[in-house]
Each structure stands twice: as structure tokens, then as C-alpha cells.
């Protein structure tokens, strides 16, 4: 008999965990982390068992009504993490638990069963029976012959196929008592039917070995240390991750590996799979409910030792965790921004490492400012990989002044002359090119020639993008589409000539084909990858040289390894650079470094052409030399000047509502009250419209605050909840350490 009382964290935001008694008949099935149904003020409510007591200090404790999940999904470690996330990111715990625990684990899931056939009698008897049936029933003898050759059991479907008969034959034989059909759970792991060639560990170079040794020491000492692994693209960081994983597996432990969402679809996974095939559980958003259920429980039971996934995988219940790896730790996709909790998976990973006393590796070619800052303060241990592993070297970067190109072309041109000649040269040599542009569509905007207004979405504060293939103007914020595009101005109403402006990836592809009719192109952006699997398909096509040029948005910038790519063209990075956001310079430097890193990863030296009108911009100069340290010095000095992160912490408070003026007023009231509660060291900026004032018919206002650490802010937010009731219809969004000051 376990304890009589369970502490249940309820699925309603306003409630602390409550005591419930455990009925005797449920005693067996209730453990830490079980999802249960309990009565709450006459209603049914679900909640998680998060503790036990012998008795409750309260009178009239109600009983748990029933068990809702077939196996507990929550572990004590993960629950502890959830509590921290709730506090740190000022989000109610139930909302955090919703984020952490996939919906497939919130219901009773029966494992998927598959039919197998077993012998019910000895082989001799079976053989005799087969002999007696031969000539009388062809179907039955065929089944028995297959069964005689099979091992312990055979898949029913396989048996039927081999025997060339139908289920009725098997049923008849089962009735005769010579075989039986049983149902066994099938492992739904998506790896099951793939074949991988196992790769061997590489012999590490000096820098790699040093980094690995440092990490291994901490694994053995079960010591929490953050290892910032700063290695240029292609320097062999992934190889270090894999060898560190190997060490953990040798010691019987488990590993958590986080990768950016984008590389989950591509080659990175294959490399891990080829080395560790059956030990790995992959968590990505395209898993079916059953697959997710299996992956989660396999990790929890220690059947899978390695959890590999994007952002939310940081909460995966890895058994006997000994190491955490965050690849490309600077990647913005680790930060959840559109919904609370606005957690950063890298930061949660670091915290998890400290809770579970294990080392954490943060790897990147362009570490985030905050991580490098922590390393400079000595909080993180820094390992640097300064040369490319294997035989390749870093590409040469040339910046082309596009103003001169426009002069020469007597107008706008997408490609500089030098870039075109280099693309042609690559094609002739049988090498490949990647062209990067951060905008999709054909034209990025459509403008009225008489009044100068852009055609905007009716529900959003956003210029609409022209897509030529669909002959439509689309809003990239809400998906609204106008087809065909208007022939008179929606703003001034005059039937004027509408002018299309701005270049997107769709136009780049067409323009290139017009110039080189025999060039084979592929395009990878949000438009060409809508269907499940299209991503992988396009990448595979490029990898097998089905195209000479790959054109794409961020999707092509990161983590890919194509040995034949020797030229990368960045068509225009001016917009990213001038984006009104405190991270714009950092983002641009990272992006250029990452995309450049795709060139010359094999035998041939790579080349990068950077087209820009801002050739004197310091960031472009730094990107040209790919000097991360110089970039860091420059950028951290700016952050120091303004006391911006990482020197101080930042929070964003955003309010949205359906009425423009009232939303602004409400947020101003909130800000005034907050200001009165906060200590003086806080800097609170004024309320301003968000980067997009209107999205899907809602108006967004925001303000920022900076402080030493944000504890006083968290306390004040709690108090404010009681002081100011925000009416229904408004949504308050709090973001701790926001990634963007724009939206
Ligand atoms: P990164 O993750 O830093 O971009 P990778 O681990 O992908 O670098 O390594 C780049 C290439 O170099 C890969 O093809 C990898 O197999 C190879 N490589 C890595 N380490 C070594 C080594 N010690 N010796 C030879 N080749 C290596
Ligand atoms: Zn819209």
C-alpha cells in the first residue's frame, strides 16, 4: 500500500496543487506523473500526480475519480524543470505542462498491436499434418510449409503473402489447434524500416581531442559545467558530439541532443542515426501520436538512450541522463516566441544540466552573444576549434558593391556580373551553387503608381507579396490571398498602374533560367516545402546532383553538407542588416557565416559572393574575414553602451486587443502600475506599437524593460494580477529575454 493521499497539479491555471485521496482500487495504477481525473467544485478536472502524503491536513479531501493516462508521462526531473520554467517565464504551471507533455500522452493510448502467427504444436506434428493435407488443401499446406520454415513467430501479413492465401485459411488452421494468432505491440519507431550503414568514429585532431577530454572528465565526475564549443563551420563539432555520446553509452547513460528544427529534416539526423541507429529516439513535430507515445516511453524506460529533437525535446524524459548537447546554440528557433511560456530551450537545457548534475555542450560556429559573454566571464568553459577538419578550408568571401552594378546595368539587377560568371563556371565544371535570399515570393510588394500606397492585407499591417505561379498577392502573416492582384489601387481607388517591387526567391529562379536556359535549379522555401516530405525530397535531389543551383531562404543556410557546393551567393542581406531590432547585426553576422559555411566543404575550396549596397558596413567587413572574436568585441561594446542584454536582462510586455486605442490605453495603465512597483534600477521604455501593429485583426502594443535580473519584475507581475483585471478579449504576453524588439 502506497500513501493514501496524492498531491495533484490541476489543469486549471488559477489553482495550486490540491490533495486527493487514492481509492484502493486505483492504488496500483497511480504513480508519480499519472494523469488523473478529480472533482473540483462540482466539475471534473484533470491533473497530474506530483507527490504523495500519508495524510492531509485538510478535512473532507475528495477522492481521485479515475486514471486518464495509461502510463505516467511526467518524471520527477521533468516536473522540477516545469516548475522552474513556470516561475522563470511567469507562466501558469498548467500551461507549461501543456507545452511539455504532448497531447498523445494525455490519454489512454493502447499500444498499436500487430498480428503474428505461432506454432501451437510441435514441428513433428505440424509436419505430419502438412503431409496429411497435401493434395487435399493446397492453401493449408502452403501455410504450414511457410510456418515450418519460420522462426518463433511470423507476421500474419508476411505468412499470407508467402503462402499466397487469405486469412480464412489461417483461421481454419487455428480452429484445428495447430497454430495460433497472437497480437504483439509493434515498435512504431520510424527508423524501423530504414537501413543505415554504420559509420566509425574519426581520429580526432588536437583541438577536438582536447575539447572531448574536457567533456569526458565532467561526464565521469557527474559535474555540471557548460562547455561552449566554438568551432568554425566544418571544424568537426558534430564528430565531438558523437564521440562524447559514445562515452556516455559506454557508461550506460542517456543523452539529450537538441538541434534546430530546420536540421531535423535534413542530414544531421542521418549522421546520428548512422552511428547510433537503434539507440536513438527522434522527436519531431511530424511524428504520429503513436510514434510520439513510443518515443517518449522508450526514453523513460531507458530502451532508447538518446533523445534527439528540436526545442521541446529539452523536456524529454531521458533515463539516467549524463550529457546534454545543444547544437547551433545561437539558433533563434530554440526560443518559443509566439506563445507563453516564451522559453529558450538552450537556457532550459543549461538549467536541466545543473539540476541533474551533468555537463552541457553548447556548440556553434557563431555563438550567441550571451553565451560568449558567459564564457568571457568564466561561467562557461570555452573550447575553440579553429581549423576545418578533414581537408577543406574556409571559403574566400568577396563583397560586391551593388550600386556600381546598378550603374553598369543602368537599373536594377538581381545578379552582379561576377556572380553570374562564377555560376556559369561552376556549372561547366560540374560543381554546385547555393543562392541565398531571405525573401520568398516573386515580388515582395505591390504599389500604386499614383498615391504611392502599398497593397496591404485587410487584416494585417503587412505589405502583400506577389506570387507569380499562383497569380496572387499573399499576406505572409495570416495567409490571406488576393487572386488575381488588384488592377486599381485599394487605397486611393484610382485605376492606376500597379507597380510590383522587390525580389523574392521565385523571381530569382525565373531570372536565372532566363539567363541560362539549360541550368537546372531547385528552390527551397516555405512555398515549395508545404507538403510533408518535400523538404527531404528537394535536399536529396540536390545532394544527388539533380540540380546545379539551389535557391532558397534561411532553409538552405544552415547545417547542410553538400560536397559539390563550391559557390555561395548571398543576393541581398541589406534588409536583415537594417532591420529595426537590437539583434539585427548579430543575426546578420550569424546568417552570413552560416550560409558561407556551406561552400567548399570537401576537396575544392569554396567561394562566397556577398552582394550589398552597404559595402562599408562594419558587419559586412567582419563577415568577410569571418572573424567571430572581432565581431564579438564590436557588438558587445554597443550592447554595453546601451546596457542591453547580455549586460542586463530584458523583458517584453505585449498586449493585443481588437480595439486599437483601447489596447494602447490598457497597456499604458498596466505599465504605470508596474512602474510604481518596480525598484529604481529598472529602465522601463514607453509603450509603442509592435513591429506589426495589426495581425489577424488584432492590435499589438508593447513595451520593454531592462533590469539587473528580473525577480522584482516577476513579483510585480504577480501583484499586478490582483490589482488590474485585464478584461476578456485582451491577451497579455510576457516574454523574458525576448529574441526580438520588433514583434
Ligand atoms: P561541424 O559540425 O563543426 O560543422 P562536422 O563534424 O560536420 O563539423 O565535420 C565536417 C566534416 O569533417 C565531416 O565530413 C566530418 O566527417 C569530417 N571530420 C570531422 N572530424 C574529423 C577528423 N578528426 N578527421 C577527419 N575528418 C573529420
Ligand atoms: Zn494578413
Automatic annotation (TrEMBL):
Cofactor binding notes: Binds 2 zinc ions per subunit.
Residues the entry annotates as binding Zn(2+) 1? 448, 451, 489, 492
Q: Name one GO molecular function term.
A: ATP hydrolysis activity
Cofactor(s) needed by this chain: Zn(2+)
Q: Which Pfam families match?
A: Helicase_C (PF00271), PriA_3primeBD (PF17764), PriA_C (PF18074), ResIII (PF04851), Zn_ribbon_PriA (PF18319)
Q: Which GO terms describe its cellular component?
A: primosome complex
EC number(s) on record? 5.6.2.4
Instruction: Name the GO terms of the biological process aspect.
Output: DNA recombination; DNA replication initiation; DNA replication, synthesis of primer; double-strand break repair
What range(s) does the Helicase ATP-binding domain occupy?
218-385
> Which chemical reaction does it catalyze?
Couples ATP hydrolysis with the unwinding of duplex DNA by translocating in the 3'-5' direction; ATP + H2O = ADP + phosphate + H(+)
Q: Which SMART domains match?
A: DEXDc, HELICc
Chain sites annotated for binding Zn(2+) 2:
457, 460, 475, 478
Per UniProt, the enzyme's principal EC class comes to isomerase
Top-level division of the source organism's lineage: Bacteria
PROSITE patterns documented for this protein: HELICASE_ATP_BIND_1
Q: Describe, as the record does, how this protein assembles with itself and its partners.
A: Component of the replication restart primosome.
Family, according to the entry, reads as follows: Belongs to the helicase family. PriA subfamily.
Per the entry, what this protein does is: Initiates the restart of stalled replication forks, which reloads the replicative helicase on sites other than the origin of replication. Recognizes and binds to abandoned replication forks and remodels them to uncover a helicase loading site. Promotes assembly of the primosome at these replication forks.
Question: Which named protein is this?
Answer: Replication restart protein PriA
Source organism (scientific name): Estrella lausannensis
Protein's gene: priA
Amino acid at each position: 500500500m502506497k500513501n493514501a493521499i496524492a498531491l495533484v497539479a490541476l489543469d486549471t491555471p488559477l489553482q495550486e496543487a490540491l490533495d486527493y485521496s487514492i481509492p484502493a482500487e486505483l492504488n496500483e495504477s497511480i504513480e508519480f506523473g499519472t494523469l488523473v481525473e478529480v472533482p473540483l467544485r462540482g466539475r471534473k478536472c484533470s491533473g497530474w500526480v506530483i507527490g504523495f502524503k500519508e495524510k492531509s491536513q485538510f478535512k473532507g479531501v475528495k477522492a481521485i475519480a479515475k486514471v486518464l493516462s495509461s502510463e505516467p508521462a511526467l518524471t520527477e526531473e521533468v516536473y522540477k524543470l516545469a516548475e522552474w520554467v513556470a516561475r522563470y517565464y511567469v507562466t501558469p504551471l498548467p500551461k507549461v505542462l501543456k507545452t511539455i507533455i504532448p497531447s498523445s500522452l494525455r490519454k489512454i493510448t493502447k499500444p498499436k498491436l500487430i498480428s503474428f502467427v505461432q506454432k501451437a504444436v510441435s514441428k513433428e506434428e505440424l509436419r505430419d499434418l502438412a503431409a496429411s493435407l497435401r493434395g487435399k488443401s493446397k492453401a493449408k499446406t502452403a501455410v504450414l510449409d511457410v510456418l515450418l520454415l519460420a522462426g518463433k513467430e511470423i507476421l500474419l501479413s508476411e505468412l499470407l503473402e508467402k503462402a499466397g492465401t487469405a486469412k480464412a485459411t489461417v483461421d481454419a488452421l487455428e480452429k484445428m489447434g495447430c497454430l495460433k494468432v497472437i497480437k504483439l505491440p509493434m515498435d512504431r519507431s520510424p527508423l524501423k524500416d530504414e537501413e543505415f550503414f554504420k559509420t566509425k568514429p574519426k581520429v580526432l585532431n588536437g583541438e577536438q581531442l582536447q575539447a572531448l577530454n574536457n567533456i569526458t572528465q565532467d561526464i565521469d565526475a557527474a559535474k555540471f559545467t557548460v562547455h561552449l564549443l566554438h568551432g568554425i563551420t566544418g571544424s568537426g563539432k558534430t564528430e565531438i558530439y558523437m564521440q562524447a555520446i559514445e562515452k556516455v553509452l559506454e557508461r550506460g547513460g542517456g543523452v539529450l541532443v537538441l538541434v534546430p528544427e530546420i536540421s531535423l529534416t535534413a542530414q544531421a539526423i542521418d549522421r546520428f542515426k548512422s552511428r547510433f541507429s537503434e539507440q536513438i529516439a527522434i522527436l519531431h513535430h511530424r511524428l504520429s501520436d503513436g510514434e510520439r507515445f513510443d518515443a517518449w516511453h522508450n526514453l523513460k524506460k531507458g530502451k532508447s538512450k538518446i533523445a534527439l529533437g528540436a526545442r521541446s525535446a529539452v523536456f524529454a524524459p531521458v533515463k539516467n541522463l549524463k550529457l546534454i548537447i545543444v547544437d547551433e546554440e545561437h539558433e533563434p528557433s530554440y526560443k518559443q516566441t509566439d506563445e507563453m511560456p516564451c522559453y529558450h530551450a538552450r537556457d532550459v537545457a543549461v538549467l536541466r544540466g545543473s539540476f541533474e548534475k551533468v555537463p552541457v555542450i553548447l556548440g556553434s560556429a557563431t555563438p550567441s552573444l550571451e553565451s560568449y559573454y558567459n564564457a568571457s566571464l568564466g561561467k562557461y568553459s570555452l573550447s575553440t576549434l579553429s581549423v576545418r577538419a578533414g581537408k577543406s578550408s574556409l571559403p574566400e568571401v568577396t563583397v560586391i558593391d551593388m550600386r556600381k552594378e546598378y550603374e553598369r546595368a543602368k537599373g536594377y539587377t538581381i545578379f552582379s556580373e561576377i556572380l553570374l560568371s562564377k555560376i556559369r563556371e561552376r556549372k561547366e565544371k560540374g560543381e554546385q551553387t547555393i543562392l541565398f535570399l531571405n525573401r520568398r515570393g516573386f515580388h515582395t510588394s505591390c504599389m500604386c503608381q499614383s498615391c504611392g500606397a502599398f497593397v496591404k492585407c485587410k487584416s494585417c499591417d503587412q505589405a502583400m507579396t506577389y506570387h507569380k505561379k499562383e497569380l496572387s498577392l499573399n499576406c505572409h502573416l495570416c495567409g490571406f490571398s488576393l487572386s488575381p492582384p488588384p488592377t486599381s489601387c485599394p487605397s486611393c481607388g484610382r485605376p492606376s498602374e500597379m507597380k510590383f517591387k522587390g525580389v523574392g526567391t521565385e523571381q530569382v529562379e525565373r531570372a536565372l533560367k532566363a539567363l541560362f536556359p539549360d541550368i537546372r535549379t531547385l528552390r527551397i522555401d516555405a512555398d515549395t516545402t508545404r507538403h510533408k516530405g518535400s523538404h527531404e525530397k528537394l535536399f536529396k535531389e540536390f545532394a544527388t546532383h539533380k540540380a546545379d543551383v539551389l535557391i532558397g531562404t534561411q532553409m538552405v543556410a544552415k547545417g547542410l553538407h553538400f560536397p559539390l557546393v563550391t559557390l555561395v551567393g548571398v543576393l541581398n542581406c541589406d534588409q536583415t542588416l537594417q532591420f529595426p531590432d537590437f539583434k539585427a547585426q548579430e543575426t546578420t553576422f550569424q546568417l552570413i557565416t552560416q550560409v558561407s559555411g556551406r561552400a567548399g566543404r570537401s576537396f575544392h575550396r569554396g567561394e562566397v559572393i556577398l552582394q550589398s549596397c552597404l559595402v562599408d558596413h562594419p558587419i559586412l567587413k567582419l563577415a568577410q574575414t569571418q572573424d567571430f572574436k572581432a565581431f564579438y568585441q564590436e557588438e558587445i561594446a554597443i550592447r554595453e553602451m546601451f546596457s542591453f542584454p547580455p549586460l542586463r536582462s530584458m523583458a517584453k510586455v505585449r498586449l493585443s486587443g481588437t480595439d486599437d486605442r483601447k489596447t494602447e490605453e490598457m497597456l499604458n495603465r498596466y505599465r504605470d502600475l508596474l512602474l510604481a512597483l518596480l525598484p529604481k534600477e529598472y529602465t522601463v521604455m514607453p509603450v509603442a506599437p509592435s513591429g506589426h501593429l495589426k495581425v489577424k485583426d488584432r492590435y499589438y502594443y508593447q513595451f520593454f524593460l531592462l533590469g539587473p535580473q528580473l525577480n522584482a519584475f516577476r513579483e510585480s507581475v504577480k501583484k499586478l494580477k490582483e490589482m488590474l483585471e485585464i478584461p476578456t478579449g485582451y491577451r497579455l504576453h510576457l516574454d523574458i529575454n525576448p529574441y526580438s524588439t520588433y514583434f
